[in-house]
Amino acid sequence: MKKIQNTLKNYSIILAALVMSSCASTRRHNEQRATCIPPEKLKEDVDYAYSKLQKMHPQLYWYISKKELDHKFDSLKQTFDEPLTPLQFYFKLQPVIADIREGHLALRVPRKKFTKREIKKLEHKKGMFSRFEYYVQGNHLFIVENKDSIEGIQPGTEVLSINGIPVAEYMKKYRELISSDGYNMTFQSYFLKDVFFNFYTAENGFADRASIETLYKGKKHTYILHRENKTETDLEKDKEQEKRTPERKVNDYVAFSNSYNRNFKFLDQDSTTAYMKIKSFSRDHSEQFYKEAFAKIKNAKTKYLIIDVRNNYGGSLQEINNLYSYLAPEPFVLIKPSQLTSRLSPLRTNYFRKSSAFQYAFKSLAYPTYVFSQTFSTYKKDGKVYYKMKADKPTQPNKDAFHGKVFVLINGGSFSASSIITAKLQYDKRAILVGEETGGANDGTVAGFYSYQKLPNSKINLPIGLLLVQPNIDFMNTRRGVIPDVTIPDSMQDVIDKKDPQLEWVKNEIAKDKKHQ
């Protein structure tokens, strides 16, 4: 008994030490975030960031020449004539990073860190801005959904200013921080509506109230928003949403938005048309989802399949390779061999990043195996270095592969893996793409896995993609997204009225096709 008591006492001491260490780390981070950095140190960080990009990024000058990028970094350094905080520095350096036009490449915003107590307090409060759904048009921000009927604000209301600062000023500032792949024309507005208040709170913090000036049907109005406390019912609902039932696992339930990443249903009583909505290629339980969905499609003898990847920012290559196996009429290769800058690149992925003490100990034991496997995961061909990937090898069609007509819905929020699979489907003439130009490039992107670099003075994180990932197609070199076969944009009013012109077009085409059979 005494031995158990001593052991428990030791664990308590260790736990207390970890808590104190965590608090001290949070305090140091926030102190550093508020500290001004001298101009010479800022210039060192710029040089550090550029040197790491040149060393690790396999396609740095895809959309911008070396001469032009050199000039941009040199010009930036000339602007440092006074000390800046890390956040101020971020707003100067990130626009230059965005000019590289690689959508996956971006500095991490140097945010304030919260203690566990502060996080717990925020968890017991409702969001203030996050309870609305937004629509971005140019430099205008509109509310298109108000689920909780906060202050009676109507869908279609434009937010003109927040605490007296015009929204247009924020829009101009934040647009410079975002880039798509290449010269894509659709991504920015979709992404900006999702991250606008991430940037805003990084600058202004999590306040408990805000004044917003609005415009609706020609009339201006000022509302005071409050960060309300959650009721006991709200907290119970939160707990319920966190439960992982078998259905939630297979459909990849997201508690934050109370929605699923994957949905499947038939659109008609005779099961002629199947509809599959995929919000993210998260890979979690995806194999089971596709196995069940395509088995239902086969048993129902479905003739038409609609795959909806609108607002899908991408994810797992393994998942899209598996999905393609259910659509392919013959063996296929999804992507071309993925290029690296050197054979050492896979070892620059910050193996111990974000590891707890236990995880660090376990990873330390496994590290030799990790190094061995990564060392033999690369190969050289024609003077270039490539990484071995399952998706660049021939894959057989699944036994339950669908052989009917496929329509794919896309828009500016279809990015990364969504663009890879849609470019391949279009090239292979396996699907009709309907909607808007995708946010990700037709000819591939740089992502895969990352090396997380920390700038030495500002301590800002810079994740650098290490793999050039490209669909196995003949490249068009348009430096744009995947262009749909049938272009059908939607409007803000469509969103407000919950109309879906892209899906309706496909349904009409299917109805016409049925009549001619």
Structure description:
This protein has 517 residues and is of the alpha+beta class. It has helices at residues 2-33, 39-56, 66-78, 86-98, 116-123, 167-175, 187-204, 232-241, 246-250, 286-300, 317-325, 357-375, 417-427, 492-496, 501-515; strands at residues 132-137, 140-146, 157-162, 165-166, 209-216, 219-226, 253-254, 259-260, 262-266, 273-278, 304-308, 338-340, 378-381, 384-387, 405-410, 432-435, 445-454, 461-469, 486-487. Strands 1, 2, 3, 4, 5 and 6 form a 6-stranded antiparallel beta sheet that branches. Helix 10 (286-300) links the parallel strand 10 (273-278) and strand 11. The radius of gyration is 25 Å and the shape is globular. The model has no long low-confidence stretch (mean pLDDT 89).
Helical/strand content category: alpha+beta
- How far do the termini sit from each other? 81 Å
Biggest β-sheet strands, sense, barrel: 6 strands, antiparallel
Oligomer class? single chain
Helical amount: 25-40%
| Mean residue pLDDT | 89
Q: Percent of residues in beta strands?
A: 15-25%
Shape annotation = globular
How many β-strand runs? 19
